[in-house]
Amino acid sequence: MTIFRAARPRVLLTAVAAGTLLLTSACNDSATTAQDKASGTAAPSAGPTASPAATPKPKGEADPALKPFYGQQITWADCPADPRAERAKIDISGMQCGRLHVPLDYANPASDAIDLALIRYPATAKDQRIGSLMVNPGGPGASGVEMVKYGAKDFDGTLHTRFDVIGFDPRGTGDSSPVVCYDDEQLDAVNQTDTPDDPAERKAAHVKQSTDHAAACQAKSGKLLPFVGTRNTARDLDVLRAAVGDRKLNYLGISYGTYLGALYAEEFPQNTGRLILDGAVDPAQDTMDHGVDQQIGFEKSFQRFADDCVDNHAAECPLGTDRTKAARKAADFLDGLHDHPLTAKDGRKLGRDMAWTGVISLLYGDEKTSWKYLRNSLGWAMMRDKGDYLMAAADDYDGRDGNGHYSPMDEANGAISCADAARPAPTREHAQQAVDRLLAEAPLLSKGVTVDDYLEPGCAYWPFKTQEKPHTIRAEGAAPILVVGTTGDPATPYASAEKLAKGFARATLLTRVGEGHGAFGKGSACIDLAMAAYLTDGTMPAEGTRCG
């Protein structure tokens, strides 16, 4: 997700038009948690520099200039007190925190360096310990430290028994030299502003917001921006592997974390151990096409939610009794907030775009978790004119905590996405095909979309140009990889998992049949057992395995 808006709803169409990935963490349930990460800035630079992707591929441990980084010893200590964990009654006393020193620019490792935030959840059975399990929750921009700290229960059992579970904040995120562009008040203003309905006004607003956003990020984080791409994070991951003493990398990546894992396997195939890529991104897909698929995925999920509301929860469903009209009724209400926003208890306005953001946020969950919260949130808004619950869900997605402070996840997302792939301007024919698909298959979420919303190249106003391009990742020479896909996943549609697995030289696809984004931590014993068996002894599930 990026700051500017190209069309509605913001949370989806902005990413499509900008050519960026729109993913999020699969480990946190939007119905019950909120992002609350540390912020900071990086020193500005004088102007644009070459993309690090254009530099020669580093040699890793064989590069003498990188030996000080690969040979470092991490100092682990008790994690500092965390009021949020205390409020949630999460015991972090057994966890340890540390820092990893990495080059800012791997082509010039002696020029500058940054520190990455780490957390370790030590294995409980020292005599059975296999090594470390590195994890990434997605985003791009989500915090791996928070994934372990607040999602520790998801690792309880075999994984925590046999592995030190290690989370890290990737460069440009969390507490690892985060990308910063705006202050909290500016972000509040941006998030409360609806996209204009008129196409010409929308275009003008998009250009202004995009240029302002690029200038703000350049002013506060300019030195960092050329080096936050995922390929550099994959290189950081290899340094971390060596620093904790592991010969091979064992890794669990969710959502965008699958792209990080895939790039690692491409960069360091000889160092891959057991990699699980869950909620997969197809690295070969054009980012606009990915956004269109994602938009359609959320529309389908929204329709299934509405059907379930009418069919199975009639007494508490605010969408009426006619399943053929239920989704449209909700969409019409949400769209109407553009002209008639609701006022929250804190005085902020819940307009159309923020309300849709809250709905999309809750569709990352499934019928067992966040769909109930979505029913209640829509009910309070539609029946009582109270938008606080939808606003809370939008705040969670945008990284805003209860004190009005934003995490750097949102700003990191745009910066990392533009460093990973700046989509070229599509032909008018390609843009028209995208719009035709959206209007036919996602009419509720794509209302008012035009071809002009998609003709501009992605990241057109970003100050740094990357040479990274979408491509199939084969990872020749890597160990077998386990790819996991969920059939009803709206954020990373199941077809992406199929394509990612097929692209690898050696991979197996494991399928979860169900709703929501990602399979890890979703309560499927079949999935959990398959993941644990692969990570602990290398046993792959049988080809074609499907879990409920």
UniProtKB/TrEMBL annotation:
Residues in Peptidase S33 tripeptidyl aminopeptidase-like C-terminal domain copies: 458-547
Key words, A-Z: Hydrolase, Signal
Gene Ontology molecular function: any one: hydrolase activity
Compositionally biased region (Low complexity): 37-57
Disordered: annotated span: 37-65
Keyword Hydrolase belongs to the record: yes
Family matches, as Gene3D superfamilies: alpha/beta hydrolase
Segment forming the signal sequence: 1-31
Ranges in a coiled coil: none
Pfam families: Abhydrolase_4
Keyword Hydrolase among record annotations: yes
Family of this protein: Belongs to the peptidase S33 family.
Name the record gives this protein: Peptidase S33 family protein
